[in-house]
Every structure is written in structure tokens, then in C-alpha cells.
Amino acid sequence: MCDLKKFRDLPIEWDMTQEDAITRHLEWGNNPYKGERRAVQFEGETSYYFVVNTWDSPKVMLIKMSSEGPEELAELDLPDNLAQDFYAKMGKLKGVFPITPKIKAWLEEKMGL
């Protein structure tokens, strides 16, 4: 199990989605980004955010996104109770999804916030 406390000082964008991160950091030159966040303007700008990956057993991943692409910083298995709650809300689809409020609270606890 990864110790998330070492990431506690990162500026986590709790409501960032994978789609927004890709648009903001990787596709900003060829589309009019109209999200709530400003488009990336300088090389070296990064976003830190969590996603739920359900391609295999459900995992929570901490991602660092930059114009160089995504980097996985941490991966944790989702506890059964949170996985059941997640699937009840999102269905049992395979993919990469935003975290739920319950998962956010669990992550904040793991980070010591």
C-alpha cells in the first residue's frame, strides 16, 4: 500500500477529470478550451489529480499531468465498501473515472489532511 502522506503538500485538483487534464495539457493548441481552469500557457505547468481506474479491479490513481503526458505517482486498491458505492453510482463500466465524494474523503484521510 502506498503512503499518500508524502503527497500531502501537492496542489491536488480534486475536481479535475482525466478528460479535462488531457484537454488542458495535451490538446490545448488545437481546441478552444472552455473549462473552468485556464489553459496551460507555459511548459512545466502540471496538474495533480486522482482518478478511479476500473479496467481491472478498481484502483485509485494519483496522476501528475503535464505537456509531456501523464505520470502515475501512486496507485491504491479501492476498499470493497468504496468500490461497491462507486459501482452503485457509476455502474460497472470499464474505464477511468472521477473520484466520488466518499473516495475523496478517504483519500484526504490517507493523506493526513
Question: Can you tell me about this structure?
Answer:
It is a single chain. This protein is of the alpha+beta class and 113 residues long. The protein has one domain (11-111). 27% of the residues lie in helices and 23% in strands. The chain is built from three helices and four strands; from the N terminus they run αβββαβα. The chain has helices at residues 18-26, 80-90, 101-111; strands at 47-53, 59-66, 69-77, 96-97. It has a four-stranded antiparallel β-sheet. The longest helix has 11 residues, at 80-90. The radius of gyration is 14 Å and the shape is globular.
Could you give the topology of this structure?
Layout: H1 18-26, E1 47-53, E2 59-66, E3 69-77, H2 80-90, E4 96-97, H3 101-111
Low-confidence runs of at least 5 consecutive residues: none
Average pLDDT over all residues: 87
Please list the strands of the largest sheet in the order they lie side by side: 3-2-1-4
- How many domains make up the 3D coordinates? 1
Structural classification: alpha+beta
Strand content: 15-25%
| Main β sheet profile | 4 strands, antiparallel
- Topology pattern, helix = H, strand = E: HEEEHEH
Work out the helicity level: 25-40%
Distance between the termini: 18 Å
Give a summary of the structure in a few sentences.
By secondary structure, the chain is of the alpha+beta class.
